[in-house]
Amino acid sequence: MKPIQMVDTKGQYLKIKQAIQQGIEEVLESAAYINGPAVQRFTQSLNQYMGSKHTIPCANGTDALQIALMALGLQPGDEVITPSFTYIATTEVVALLRLTPVFVDVDPVTFCIDPEALQKAITPKTKAIVPVHLYGQAANMEAIMAIANAHNIYVIEDNAQAIGCAYTFSNGKTVKTGTIGHIGCTSFYPSKNLGAYGDGGAIFTNDDALAEKIKMIANHGQKERYYHEVVGCNSRLDAIQAAILDVKLKHLDEYIAARNAAAAFYNNAFANNAAITIPGVANYTNHVYHQYTLVLNGINRNALNTYLAEQKIPSMIYYPVPGHKQKMFSTFGLPEVNLPVTDWLTERVISLPMHTELDNEQLEYISSHVLKFVNNNI
Ligand SMILES: *Cc1c(COP(=O)(O)O)cnc(C)c1O
């Protein structure tokens, strides 16, 4: 059996090695290392794949979120509602811009922001909502957009874990996540579903004025060279990464299918086990399984993690400390919040190996060891 990894980026690379090397070689030969044809080509391919009006590439997913927030022209102290149960980047950028993060709870089945909790958290100072399509399925965007529109609030989708995910509205219309809110953001961090071989990110919007601002902010606040209209930053997608991503984008749907096949194997193995809850998928979204995350019921998670490690099976806790309990926010004078679902999930979730290269032998080995531990420890 091949050694089991949480993510097997190398195994995936070996299958597309020739095309990747050709892409890199072309950039090297072109000497267009910054914003050249490779970046333009990938930006167009991605824009088309997403069905977005505008796609603006940038240096990483965290920058994408920061630039998106900067484009909204918010003032210090304006409130931005986000889930606490997410990767830190979502809320870090809010704090970095001296905006006030307002943490709300998530849905216990989808792990995404709970629209009811969101509704309750709105105040006259609320200016934006950042829902996260956590682990690869969409938050309830129809409900979120309805609340946002009723209160004139911006929505920035954190689509870092869900690129390629499709959302279906109640009228039957299906679109890609990241193109529903006013702005969508994604990351090409190597382990993400569309991973570069280094850092990268992108911003999506259907709004022409926001697209202009985003482009300007990502480029030192200038439209015309050396004429800086606003304070911006320097956030570019590297040309070599763009060439790599352009090759990988052609395989994204096939990668999503491979992740779904692995998830189906796990789901089947763990079905009807009272001690394990398999990922629940809402009817308005498909799942691109950035992570395959179980909720344990009455199982000692650390002991399971140790047992699996002894069997050479990696497993991870995403995330061990939710945002509202991070020390970094302690100087912000934020009011105490009570997020029972977030706290409950934080103590019970465990993610199993999930990537495009898992074979049935590995999946059988992983799931049988999980079951062995669970069934012997109840
Ligand atoms: C990975 C990730 C980010 C940040 O992306 P980087 O490219 O690592 O900066 C933001 N939000 C979420 C939910 C992520 O998983």
TrEMBL record:
GO BP of this protein: polysaccharide biosynthetic process
Cross-referenced Pfam families: DegT_DnrJ_EryC1
Annotated keywords: Pyridoxal phosphate
GO molecular function, one term: pyridoxal phosphate binding
N-terminal signal peptide: none
Protein name (database record): dTDP-4-amino-4,6-dideoxygalactose transaminase
Gene3D superfamilies assigned to the protein according to its UniProt record, in alphabetical order: Aspartate Aminotransferase, domain 1, Type I PLP-dependent aspartate aminotransferase-like (Major domain)
SUPFAM superfamilies for the chain: PLP-dependent transferases
Transmembrane annotation, as ranges: none
N6-(pyridoxal phosphate)lysine: residues bearing it: 192
Family: Belongs to the DegT/DnrJ/EryC1 family.
Annotated active site: 192
